[in-house]
Amino acid sequence: MYFHSLPFLIFFLIVYPAYLAVKRTKLRLPFLLAASYFFYGWLNPLYVVLIAYSSALDYWVVKRMAGSRHRKSWLAVSITNNLGLLGFFKYGAFVTDNINLLLSSLRIPYEVPSPGILLPAGLSFYIFQSLSYTIDYYRGNIERETSFIRYATFVSLFPRLLMGPIERAKNLLPQMHKSPRICGGDIADGLSMFVVGLFKKVALADYLALYVNKVYASPDQFQSPALILATFLFAWQIYFDFSGYTDMARGVARMMGFRLMLNFNNPYLAASLGDFWGRWHISLSTWFKDYLYIPLGGNRKGTFSTYRNMFLVMVISGLWHGAAWTFVIWGALHAAGRFFTRELERTAFYKEKVPRLLKQLLVFAFVTFAWIFFKAASISDAWVIVTRIFSSGWADPRCPVLALALIFAVWLYQYSYESKIGWVLELKPVRVGFVVAMILYLIVFAPSSDQAFIYMQF
Amino acid sequence: MKRESIQDVGKNEDVAFGSNAIRLSGWEWIIVAIICLTAFLFAPSLWGQLGEIKSGSDYRLPYKLGSDYWLYGRLCRKACSQYETVLIGDSVVWGHYVPADGTLSHYLNEYTGQDQFANLGVDGFHPAALWGLLKYYGREISNKKVIVHLNPLWMSNRKQDLQTDKEYRFNHPKLVPQFRPKIPCYKDPWSERMSVTIGHHVPFLGWTAHLRTAYFENMDVPAWTAEHPYENPLRAITLELPAAKEDNPQDYRPWTERRMPKQDFQWVELETSLQWKLFRRSIELLKARNNTVFVLVGPFNEHMLTGESPGIYSKMKSGIESWFRQNNIPYFLPEALPSNLYSDASHPLPEGYALIARKILEDESFQSSILSR
Description:
The complex is a heterodimer.
Chain A: H1 6-22, H2 28-41, H3 45-65, H4 71-105, H5 123-139, H6 148-156, H7 158-161, H8 169-176, H9 184-217, H10 224-255, H11 273-277, H12 282-296, H13 303-321, H14 325-344, H15 348-353, H16 356-375, H17 379-391, H18 401-417, H19 422-426, H20 428-444
Helix pairs in contact in A: 1-2, 2-3, 2-6, 3-4, 3-5, 3-6, 4-5, 9-10, 9-20, 10-16, 10-17, 12-13, 13-14, 14-16
Chain B: H1 26-50, H2 69-82, E1 85-88, H3 91-94, H4 104-112, E2 117-119, H5 127-137, E3 145-150, H6 190-201, H7 203-215, H8 221-227, H9 233-236, H10 274-288, E4 292-297, H11 309-326, E5 331-332, H12 350-362, H13 364-371
Parallel strand pairs in B: 1-2, 1-3, 3-4, 4-5
């Protein structure tokens, strides 16, 4: 169930008061676990079996790891199991399709049957979250969680279950060890986050989707201006969609006394690609940094190794998003971008002479260009879009001016927030005014939205 | 490396609130709630005071605003304050093929020499939808004289009677009972039905729906801007209602000239008819609001019936009359008009409406219930 849906509202209106009633009792975690499994099972009851299995196996693996001389083997069991699940559900069809393509090109008359399996929602997120626990324990960074109920609740906590943030055990598990003290400030903060997230998703992301989907569905029917604008709008759509979900997730969690990590930090104000990845989907980028980039050697073994590791991380990050070559290309593009900009950013000219605003615009332009490969249905579609952007003529794009105005308003807000005049946005009338405007806009103008979140497909 | 106790790790970490300044305190949320609640409660009535419905004896709800139920509520209020008698029903009352001065209400006013009949018909309003319209948006129709039209067409087959198991997208689904009685062909998800039910009880939501219907071509604003990318949506919202343009399909040819074939209508059983059941509920609802109710049935174009349908229709008419008599509801069930005065199975031509008006004015029960002072 989506946060912006009536079923979720009813679910929360039942669960929240009950949670407040049991939060100081022994029923707290079992209740939270049951509610989270109900939330997940609403999509498909079989999903609950999968998450329970994944949680149970990692819990058991870490238990076996404790005091064992074969800790590395147990870690391998966890990694194999988790990546195996991911591989089977997420990449099964992709792998068989490519094998069949290879067999066909070699004229071998055999076809591997496609598994035809639906990817369980949230799998990519909670698998990584669970893996972080086993790896952190193996490394000695954290003590073993002795309660299976607590551990299972950590993995399945419903506000963050479907689309993250990918929490670390060291942040979230301690919060589950004590009864949360939920004060009025937590509820006020949670509501603030939730309303912002709801506005981003319903008023902004779903609005931009109207134009983006129309153009990207048939890119050969549109000229350069429409393709450019659709790509520009998609850059903001995916940001509003994903960060909107995260805001709502954090808001719900905050009202329940949990503090989830910040996952988006105005990424389109980044002045470098490194900065961008420090602001976009922070929980995933830090996960890859801590569990892949650094173990591969990070930047400690020379330039070639650094770039090799960066490339691998970005390509795998692309693959994490989806089982398609377009995501691989997207990741590779970002890797190439990092290579180039890393050297550029070391030059005195770039560091001292190029205005920060120009750097931000350049980064945004590059990231937006890369989004073409993220959004396009196939490589050939992406190629059509790229070539037509540069070669097709002018035609009226008929892009809603209101959409562009809203994006500009958001960008101006974010730019001001990080500038010297950010204090203006902290003034009470301004904050209250923004919230009233968002709520009234949502009720009066926004559609009743039933659009799924983009990142749920990952 | 010292292993941190799982209880200790994270104690001193400060998780950032967010990447914007929109963080309200409890008191500030109360201020927001007061402002929003004020807008919620007063915006619809304030809007109603500022804008005016241009009415007149031949005024009827503009064709394109047939699904603007909030506006219909305002029209009811105005009509009930100015007219002694209101006519409610579907496109037969509204006048689907005729201009505003060719309707039944027009001829009733003309022949009585008084401006006492108001046209509150709405195109496409089958009895199941009429019930919802009266229940949620017709509260102003109380202590009035009401002529309710029953169009037998809505019982002419199982599909029109909403009884098919296969999903059927019928008119005005938001007005039919969302849960009970169960409407087999209505398959919208329960969450959608709950939203609809809540919307009926919140005037603000009805008002926002009015804005969409009246000013944004029945689309939400984002979709409207996709069609009108360079227009300012705020400028589209005026206090002026769309004029009651004659944009309905006016066709004055009789059904025979339009080459409409005769049909063997598959009339449903009256006892199991959903439309008839909900029509009876509408009558009961009107009576409970202290209205004097008079029912006009048809007249259906019986010249179009073939096969066994004339006999079955006759039996159905008897059943309808029987119920009216048992419940002391004055009614008029005229004989079929001459064939050339129908434009289709149920809609008369202007001369047909004129004839119905003359006949109904001669009816004793009509005189005693509606014309008496």
